[in-house]
């Protein structure tokens, strides 16, 4: 995505707000991956896991609220709300992936994007 330098800082604040909300609970193993150099459609992935489908649902709600409270947008779309195994929240400049542990192991996005810079692993809540 093409954004100005000032906008880049704002988007990174939203990304960190999403990651911090995940880590505050009930998310685990949260990563922020910079995919902007290899993908045209987005700049960052936030990847996190919930212990079960209830936790995935709670994470989706918590992250959407945290991004909004940080001045961020609503997601353009949210996929995976029918089964809560893998919820994808598309914010345009960044995408949040919330998995159950088994779905995260199966799809292995962490490994697929391992050559991209990891901006934060298990970020501290801000």
Structure overview:
- The chain is of the alpha+beta class.
- The protein has 4 helices and 6 strands.
- It has helices at 5-24, 53-69, 101-107, 109-112, and strands at residues 28-34, 44-50, 77-79, 86-90, 94-100, 118-121.
- It has a 6-stranded mixed sheet with strand order 3-4-5-2-1-6.
- The protein is globular and about 35 Å long.
- It starts with a helix and ends in a 5-residue tail after the last strand.
- The mean pLDDT is 91.
Give the end-to-end Cα distance, rounded to a whole number of Å: 25 Å
Low-confidence stretches: none
| Contiguous helical run count | 4
- The quaternary organization reads as single chain
Largest sheet, in brief, is: 6 strands, mixed
Q: Tell me how many strands there are.
A: 6
Q: Indicate the radius of gyration in whole angstroms.
A: 13 Å
Quick tags:
126 residues, 6-stranded mixed β-sheet
Provide a compact summary of the structure.
This protein has 126 residues and is an alpha+beta fold. It has helices spanning 5-24, 53-69, 101-107, 109-112, and strands spanning 28-34, 44-50, 77-79, 86-90, 94-100, 118-121.
Strand and helix map with partners:
Blueprint: H1 5-24, E1 28-34, E2 44-50, H2 53-69, E3 77-79, E4 86-90, E5 94-100, H3 101-107, H4 109-112, E6 118-121
Parallel strand pairs: 2-5
Antiparallel strand pairs: 1-2, 1-6, 3-4, 4-5
């Amino acid at each position: 995505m093409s954004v100005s330098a000032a906008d880049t800082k704002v988007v990174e604040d939203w990304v960190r707000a999403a990651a911090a909300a995940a880590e505050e609970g009930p998310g685990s193993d949260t990563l922020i991956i910079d995919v902007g150099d290899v993908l045209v459609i987005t700049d960052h992935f936030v990847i996190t896991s919930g212990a079960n489908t209830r936790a995935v649902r709670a994470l989706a709600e918590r992250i959407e609220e945290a991004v909004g409270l940080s001045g961020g947008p609503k997601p353009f779309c949210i996929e995976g709300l029918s089964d809560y195994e893998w919820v994808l929240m598309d914010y345009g400049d960044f995408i949040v992936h919330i998995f159950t542990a088994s779905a995260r192991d199966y799809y292995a996005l962490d490994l697929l994007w391992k050559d991209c810079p990891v901006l934060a692993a298990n970020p501290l809540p801000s």
